[in-house]
Amino acid sequence: MNECQAVGGDEQAVLFPDLSSEIPEHAQHAAQPESAAASSGSATEVVAPRLRRPQRDQGEMFLESLDQRIELDHVARTVWAFVAQVDLSPLLERIKAVEGVQGRDANDPRILLALWLYAAIEGVGSARQLDRLCRDHRAYQWICGGVSVNYHTLADFRVKHVELLDQLLAQSLASMACEGLVDINTVAQDDMRIRASAGAGSFRREATLQEHLKDATDHLEALKKEIELNPGQLDARRQKAQLRAAREKTERLEQAVEHVRVIAQSREARKAGDGAQARASSTDPEARRMKMPDGGTRPAYNAQFATATGSGIIVGVQTSNAGADANELEPMLEDIAGNCGEHPKTVLVDGGYGTRHNIEIAHDQDIVLLTPLKAEQKQLDGGKDPYAPKKGDSDAMKAYRARMATEDAKTHYKLRGQTAEWVNAQARNRGLYMLKVRGKAKVQAVLVLFALAHNLLRAAALRAECVENVQKTLTSAQANSKQAK
User: Fold this and answer.
1) Domain extents in the chain
2) SS in 3 state form for 416-472?
3) Which residues of 53-72 are buried (b: 16+ CB within 10 A; e: fewer)?
4) Residue 169: other Cβ atoms inside 10 A
5) Hey, CA dihedral for 382, 386, 389, 390, is it positive or negative?
6) I need a labelling partner for 80 at 20 to 30 A (CA). Which of 146, 199, 285, 436 fits?
């Protein structure tokens, strides 16, 4: 027995003193070395197994570049290829570190954008988690390329450039349209409720919010005076962090008071005396209680995606805090027009969008709106014709009823589920169950990043399909040429 075996045996005896009594007799014999079995004079010789055991104290040296750490077809390379060609001049113009001026070099914004795009693909939504992955994960290390980042930089970049992200979505759609990868002849729109970063108990009436606002304001003023009187009690970094946290809490409560008044007016308009029951969240004032897919009611946001049915590419993204979809069609049509330069010819939506107003808006813009008729099956069961014109119907409503009576419209409408619901499933698979940010603007940034990441992968898949089809066509042509000869 060598020294290592002796030490290992002693450690086992100390850590597990009663282990030998519980091990079956045949297993104890099997664990003995071959020499011990031979010396025992047993008729049956037991051979000890040869095992590859872990050695964690052995020093090793690896010589490899960052580029060698990931495969040539890794998704991170696809992300970087996309980021390298987009126009980020608005961000570069804001950088103060320029040639001939002292100061630390700024991080390339392409690195930060690529990190968030790859994080969206992998379902990572936390800046702190992304910060850890940049230190531990090879793909994120490859994107960083030796440039250090921290969670503050990552978090600030994501939420401070919402307009730029919208512009990048429009630019990428224009590029894909030039390649023939996307058209907006038919678009499917659907909603998805995403849990907000706020608790159900954070919703308060105006009187309670006013009390909390007063306490937060007093705390902020007291903190400022304490720092002025004792400037050396905490380092400058902690002082700024405490002031920032107190200031942000005060601002959130001020927003909550404003929102609760808006909610009260809306409820009072629907039902007299109901405005007194209005509540707003002190954590995320823009979040609203919504009915979730499981039937429960929780703070959430209403994410709206419009997807081209032919390619599965997202062409419109909107963030709403309304619990219903009746008012979400018109903003989405404008968003699609802004991203693609024109309105879609046909829009597929579920019954929640099928209001008279939406039908007439679509009709005025020469858009074919396909959505189920209200109580269609109930009318059929009652012997009534739901497709016949009703009293007071406008020309748009009459055309809509006649259209939905055709088999072509019913067949075309089936594309909605396999397009819109599929995108929602992709969003869930990439972590859009609960948001890590607060406020509609920040939520919009998260949704646009998902849309960019989704479109990036879809474009790569469509290009691969095109190449495969061309190869099949060439192979078929060559085979036909040989047969003709």
Assistant:
1) 1-53, 66-97+105-160, 181-197+288-468, 200-281
2) HHHHHHHHHHHHHHCCCCECCCCCHHHHHHHHHHHHHHHHHHHHHHHHHHHHHHHHH
3) eeeeeeeeeeeeeeeeebee
4) 22
5) positive
6) 436
Q: Enumerate the β-bridge partners of residue 187.
A: 308, 347
Count the neighbouring beta carbons within 10 Å of the beta carbon of residue 186.
Answer: 20
Burial class (CB in 10 A: 0-12, 13-18, 19+), 168: buried
For the record, the structure tokens of 472 come out as 């099949």
What fold characterizes domain 181-197+288-468? Nucleotidyltransferase; domain 5 (3.30.420)
Q: How far apart are CA 349 and CA 329, in angstroms?
A: 9
| Residue 225, CA atoms < 13 Å, CB-side half-sphere | 6
User: What is the average per-residue pLDDT within 192-205?
Assistant: 93
SS3 at position 24: coil
Give pLDDT tens digits for 318-374.
999 998 999 999 999 999 999 999 999 999 999 999 999 999 999 999 999 999 998
Give the integer Cα–Cα distance in Å for 16 and 90: 65
Q: What value, to the nearest 5°, has the Cα angle with vertex 90 and ends 86 and 91?
A: 85
Contact call for residues 48 and 61 (beta carbons, < 8 A): no
Question: Contact at 8 Å (CB) between 126 and 134?
Answer: no
Regarding beta strands 368-370 and 280-281, do their DSSP bridges make them parallel or antiparallel, or are they unpaired? unpaired
Confidence of residue 63 (pLDDT cuts 50, 70, 90): confident
Q: Is 331 exposed, middle or buried (0-12, 13-18, 19+ CB in 10 A)?
A: middle
Q: Is the dihedral of CA 468, 470, 471, 477 positive or negative?
A: positive
> ∠ at Cα 166 (162, 170), nearest 5°?
165
Q: Classify 288 as helix, strand or coil.
A: strand
Closest CA to 194 of 303, 287, 288, 291: 303
Q: Report the run of H or E that residue 226 belongs to, with start and end.
A: helix 206-229
Measured between alpha carbons, how far is 61 from 209 in angstroms, rounded to an integer? 60
**289: which 2 tokens?**
């209680």
Instruction: Report d(CA 415, CA 344) in Å as an integer.
Output: 15
